[in-house]
Amino acid sequence: MRTLYDVQQLLKRFGIFVYIGKRIWDIELMMVEIKKLHENGLIENDEYLPALLVLKREHRKEVESETKND
Fold it and tell me: Cβ(29)–Cβ(37) under 8 Å?
């Protein structure tokens, strides 16, 4: 799992589609959903950890780009 798209495809397998309208909020909601899937035993560590790393990386990029634009 390497991209945000890959994480979206993982969530899609469980019927979870995330679109709030602001990319950073979408990423934060995806983090919540991924954590819930893992807590409930629906995904194992081999899918959970890479997905979480991708989301954290993308979140950091968004925060940095918002800071630059201010």
Answer: no
Angle at 68 between CA 62 and CA 70, to 5 degrees: 105
CA distance 3 to 40: 24
Q: Which CATH superfamily is domain 4-69 in?
A: YqgQ-like (1.10.287.760)
Task: Looking at the chain, list the stretches that DSSP marks H as alpha helix, in order from N- to C-terminal side.
Answer: 4-12, 23-39, 45-69
Tokens of 62: 């968004």
Q: Tens digit of pLDDT for each residue in 2-34?
A: 999 999 999 999 999 999 999 999 999 999 999
Question: Taking a C-beta distance cutoff of 8 angstroms, is the pair 56, 48 a contact?
Answer: no
Answer whether 0.85 is exceeded by the pTM.
yes
Check if the beta carbon of residue 19 is closer than 8 Å to that of residue 42: no
